[in-house]
Design goal:
It is built from 17 helices and twelve strands. The protein is an alpha+beta fold. The strands form four sheets. A six-stranded mixed β-sheet has the order 1-2-3-8-5-4. Strands 6-7 form a two-stranded antiparallel sheet. A two-stranded antiparallel sheet has the order 9-12. Strand 10 and strand 11 form a beta hairpin.
């Protein structure tokens, strides 16, 4: 296992190290050693074949300052298992994987169409609208309500999330990740992140109080109500994980995860359609053939639209929104590929190295929907397609995100042609920030009614 020291943790740097040291190596992120896993087979072997051993959560220093080890994202051990079980069951109850969430997504897609029509083809940067529609789906499940796109409080919350995500992935944010041990004592980006997180937590705490005041135990409305009822049920248990701190942090985690990654993927999707108009044309031809123009797309349409489905898969693969993946931790001494990883060793499964794995993708660095189509033009499953990670820490909202991407993407292209003041070849897809996550570039886009 090669050992080396790096100055910042970008996926490109990890690629360079992979070429020198192979698919498993130790890297020093500032003072702390981290084991890096590259390539589809390595990541799957660790997170699936040794799922329990690799199921711990590692540290994201700036987020940890506020969240500590509370909430579903950063919890470990029994706390994490309890919160994950509860969250999965509750989100299923309020629509994840059920028809009702499809109806919510379709309603939100219709609202988006109406909003985009108001611009009458004038160029706009759609990122805030994409945040609105993805946030509203998770808000309907967690808070029991959706917000208007002009709601000042809603827009402020979205802006806070966008800023936190940007700061975490900025150069300063990555420097803090490396040297948080002493940088935390000085002014810097981490203080801005903490302040913005605290604002979000204050909003959530206020919402929880409103829920308490209007709670009807016989008819829970959403995730918060269900959690409050569980808190009440377990109030005599001094060791319960169902307490205020875990509720607030879990809601923040779900709100954040349910908004940023899906809206960024959708944004990249539209940029890619601008850059590759021949792909857009084929998608729109399939939409016209299967759906037509007189009804909204439904999830049932997906199986009849292999090309569109392949394009969405390729958008997710190519945009590679969480390139390094969230850090893991081994929960016990683990022998992996001949190396002993002591308990609590941090592990980075570099998802980007699977999504760009040349053993699975013919042109890993090119946007090509054919990567997901077989010789007969049917959708092809691929072991390297890991945008949601895999194993026990796989993204909790994968099915919601997949459904959102399909309905939002097809609804946009059913109703609009996209155009840009910039020629396709000149559209720059370089992210604004690129750390643990990617922030798409801003771009003015014209949505022209078809």
């Amino acid at each position: 296992m090669g050992v080396c020291t790096v100055h910042w943790n970008t996926s490109n740097f990890f690629y360079w190290l992979q070429e020198k040291h192979g698919d498993v190596f130790t890297v020093h992120l500032g003072p702390r050693p981290v084991v890096v896993l590259c390539g589809t087979q390595t990541i799957r072997e660790a997170l699936v074949n040794h799922a329990e051993a690799f199921s711990g959560r590692g540290t994201i220093a700036a987020a940890q300052l506020v969240m500590q080890d509370y909430g579903i994202f950063f919890a470990n051990g029994e706390r994490w298992k309890t919160l994950r079980r509860f969250s999965l069951a509750t989100m299923k109850e309020f629509g994840m994987g059920k028809r009702s969430v499809e109806e919510r997504i379709k309603d939100e897609a219709q609202c988006l169409v109406e909003e985009l029509k108001k611009y009458q083809g004038v160029p706009l940067d759609p990122i805030f609208l994409f945040q609105c529609i993805t946030a509203n789906i998770i808000c309907s499940i967690v808070f029991g309500e959706r917000f208007d796109y002009t709601d000042d409080q809603f827009l402020h919350l979205l802006n806070l999330m966008y800023k936190i995500f940007s700061l975490l992935n900025s150069f300063s944010g990555q420097m803090f990740e490396l040297f948080s041990g002493f940088l935390k004592y000085f002014p810097g980006v981490h203080r801005q992140i903490v302040k913005k997180q605290q604002e979000l937590l204050d909003y959530i705490a206020h919402s929880v109080e409103k829920h308490k005041a209007t709670l009807d135990p016989s008819a829970p409305r959403d995730y918060i109500d269900t959690y409050l009822l569980r808190m009440e049920k377990e109030k005599s248990n001094h060791n319960t994980e169902f307490h205020h701190q875990n509720l607030i942090m879990s809601v923040l985690s779900l709100f954040f995860a349910g908004t940023e990654t899906t809206s960024s993927t959708l944004h990249y999707g539209v940029l890619l359609m601008l850059k590759y108009p021949h792909v857009t044309e084929k998608v729109q031809k399939e939409i016209d053939h299967v759906i037509g123009s007189h009804r909204l797309p439904t999830l049932d349409d997906r199986t009849k639209m292999p090309y569109t489905d392949a394009v969405i898969h390729e958008i997710q693969r190519f945009s590679d929104i969480i390139p390094i993946g969230l850090p893991h931790r081994v929960i016990k001494d683990t022998l992996f590929r001949g190396y002993l990883l002591p308990k609590n060793t941090e592990v980075y499964p570099v998802l980007s190295s699977a999504l760009h794995d040349p053993r699975y993708f013919e042109q890993p660095d090119k946007f090509n929907p054919e990567h997901f189509l077989d010789a007969n033009g049917a959708l092809k499953k691929c072991a390297a397609f890991l945008p949601f990670s895999t194993g026990k820490r796989i993204c909790l909202g994968e099915s919601i995100a997949r459904n959102e991407l399909f309905i939002f993407f097809t609804t946009i292209l059913q109703n609009f042609s996209v155009a840009s003041p910039v020629a396709p070849k000149d559209i720059d897809l370089t992210p604004k920030e690129n750390g643990i996550g990617k922030i798409p570039p801003t771009h003015q886009i014209c949505f022209l009614a078809r």
